[in-house]
Amino acid sequence: MFKNTPFEAAAKTLQENAAKFNPAAAQEAVKPMLDNLKAWGELAQNQAKAAQAAVTESMESLKNSKAPQEAFEHIKSSAESNMTLAAKHLKEATALGVAQFQASIEALEKSHPAPETLASVTKTLKAAAATMETAVDTALKNGAAAVASIKKPR
Question: Within a 13 Å sphere around the CA of 147, how many CA atoms are in the beta-carbon half?
Fold first, then answer.
């Protein structure tokens, strides 16, 4: 009845294991994915609130400006604080992404029948993720230093 094609092999596996389906186990299997989505949702919501507060503060300070030079200073201050906030948000998103990636690698190790065969690969993947996080942090620091070093023309 079944041939050796990927679709038929999957169908056979599903058919053979349909009686073993357990809704509680399925829900438990999906829980990490839902937790990850929830963490991203919370991060996005917190970052949106912070961005909204920054915009509101900028508009209020600009609205209260009495002279063009004062308005310019408010705009400059707003730009600097927005750059800092954007860097903070990028670091938070990177940290969450790397943490979830690391957790996925650890889950793979735990569920694999022979985790020792994956040891070198998972070690390399974890190191690469940590290196990427460090590279983002370094780029943000270098970018902030470059922006700070720009002098106002006279």
Answer: 15
pLDDT, tens digit only, all 154 positions of the chain = 555 666 777 778 778 877 777 888 778 878 888 999 999 999 999 999 999 999 999 999 989 889 989 988 999 889 889 989 999 999 999 999 999 999 999 988 888 888 888 889 999 999 999 999 999 999 998 888 887 787 655 5
Residue 103 near residue 86 (C-beta atoms within 8 A): no
Contact indicator for 32, 103 with CB cutoff of 8 Å = yes
Q: At residue 56, what is the residue type?
A: T
DSSP-assigned letters across all residues of 17-61: HGGG--HHHHHHHHHHHHHHHHHHHHHHHHHHHHHHHHHHHHHHH
**How far apart (Å, rounded) are the C-alpha atoms in residues 102 and 100?**
5
Cα 145 to Cα 138: distance, rounded to the nearest angstrom: 10
Residue ranges in the chain assigned as alpha helix (H): 6-17, 23-63, 68-111, 119-149
